[in-house]
Design a protein that fits this description.
By secondary structure, this protein is α+β, with helices and mostly antiparallel strands. It folds into 2 domains: 7-76, no CATH class; 87-144, Nucleic acid-binding proteins (OB fold (Dihydrolipoamide Acetyltransferase, E2P), Beta Barrel). Helices cover 41% and strands 22% of the residues. It is a multi-pass membrane protein. Residues 88-145 form the NfeD-like C-terminal domain. It is found in: Membrane.
Length: 160
């Protein structure tokens, strides 16, 4: 009785081991290798040569790995909103003036529990007032009073 494992059995063992490893890890990388090994096991059982088995393993694993980001994003993330972080998250938020914002040096505002150097786009702003972040330039915020609006010129500018 010959107990030497055949190629399809070895590929099946590899698929099972990779599948078990996938259960222990948090990424889907090993899952695609397990599916590739399973495909190669089927190919070996159908009489595919060793080079064909290796090619099939590589092709299936790489194709699934490349398609997985697109698949997961389209299936699981279709309704997810874009998460704003850093500077992008600060734009449009309100801040409290800690040190009055006067010309020309500006002052300090508190936003999300942090102190930031700020300059006002709408003139001097006293301490304790709320302002809205309009722009971030390096480590300096450009803010405006929420009720402040840009002046609208009266008349038709083409006539002047």
């Amino acid at each position: 009785m010959d107990l030497t494992p055949t190629a399809w059995q070895l590929w099946l063992i590899a698929a099972l081991l990779l599948g078990a490893l996938e259960l222990q890890l948090t990424s889907f990388m090993v899952l695609w290798l397990a599916v590739g090994a399973l495909a190669s096991s089927i190919g070996a059982a159908l009489g595919l040569s060793l080079n064909g088995q290796l090619y099939l393993f590589t092709a299936v694993s790489v194709a699934l790995f490349a398609a997985s980001r697109t698949l997961f994003k389209s299936v699981f993330m279709r309704d997810a909103a874009h998460l704003k972080t850093g500077i992008e998250a600060m734009l449009g938020q309100e801040a409290v003036v800690v040190e009055s914002l006067g010309d020309p040096l500006g002052g300090t505002v508190r936003i999300n529990g942090e102190l930031w150097t700020a300059r006002s786009l709408s003139g001097p702003v006293p301490e304790g007032e709320l302002v809205t972040v309009e722009q971030v330039e390096g480590l300096k915020l450009w803010v405006r009073r929420p009720t402040a609006s840009l002046p609208v010129p009266s008349g038709d500018p083409r006539k002047e």
